[in-house]
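#lab-general

N.A. 3:47 PM
ok so I finally got the sequence cleaned up, no stray characters, all 315 residues accounted for. can someone with queue access submit it? mine expired

B.Y. 3:52 PM
send it over

N.A. 3:53 PM
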Amino acid sequence: MDRPKKLSTPRRKSVSYAKWGYIFIAPFFITYAIFHLTPQVLTIYNSFFENYREGLTQIGPDFVGLKNYITLFTPDSNGSIDILKYTGNTVALWLGGAIPQIIIALLLAIFFTSTRLKIKGQAFFKAVIYMPNLIMASAFSMLFFTLFSNVGPVNQLIVQMGWSDHVIDFFAMKFTVRGLICLMNFLMWFGNTTILLMAGIMGIDQSLFEAAVMDGAKSIQVFFRVTLPLLMPILIYTVITALIGGLQMFDVPQVLTNGLGTPNRSSTTLIMYLNNYLGASKNYGMSGAISVIIFIITGALSLVVFKFLTKPQDG
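B.Y. 4:20 PM
back already:
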C-alpha cells in the first residue's frame, strides 16, 4: 500500500531587519557628508592654495604648498607670531569663563539634587538659571557695553559713590575687558551646564548614596567617592563641549570691542583672526590654513582634557 505523500509547505522567505537600521541612520551620515565632511575636506584643500582678492583683481587659485602655514608662524616686525598670540588669548578667555562655570554648575547641581535638602520648585529654578542661555550673545555684549561704557550707569555709580573722581575706561584695560568677556560667557552657559550635571546626578542609583550614608560617609566623602566618579562621563562631556565652544568664541569679544580686540589685540580670538582673512580680501588660502590649525588645536586640547579627567579612574 502506497503511503500518502506529504504536502510540501512553501518556505517563507526570511525577513532581514538589519537593513532597516542602516536605512534609519543613513540620513545622518548623508547630511554629515554633505554639510560637514565635504566642507572640511575643501578647507584642507584650499589651505594649500593662494587664493584671495586684491581690490577688483582675483589672485589665484595657485598651488603654494605649505606657504600659508609658514606665513602664519613667521614673526612680524615686532617679533610676535599672531597665531600663537591669539591662541593664548582664546585659551585664557575660555579658562576664565569655563572654570567658574564648571565649579558653580557642579555645586548648584549637587544643591538642587540633594535628597537631604529636598529643594522645592526645582522646575522654577531650572528655568531661571537657564534663561541667560536664551539671550543672544550679541545682545548680551551690547548690554554690557552700555553698562560699562564711559557714560554708562556703572561709571556714574562709581563717581557718585565717591569710589573714583573720574570715569574708568573699562575697555582700555586688558584685565577688565577680559574679565567682562569671561563674566558674560559664564553667565550665558552655567545654567545649561547645571542642568546637564543635574541630569547626570539624578541618573545615579540613589541606593548607592543611601548605602554610603549608612556606612558613615560624610557629605564630602560621598561626593568624591560616589558622586564624582559616577558623574565623570557627563563631566567630561560638558568640559570638552565647553572647550570646543570656547575655542570658537567670536560674537562676545567681537561686539564688545567693535571687532578691534582692544586693548592691543589682547581680546582677539582665533575666529576673529580667521574672519579678518574672510573680509574684503576673501583670502580662502590663509583662512583655510587657520581653520586647519584651529581643528588641530581643538583635537589636541580635547585629548589632553580627556586624559586628565580620566586619569584618576585608571589609577
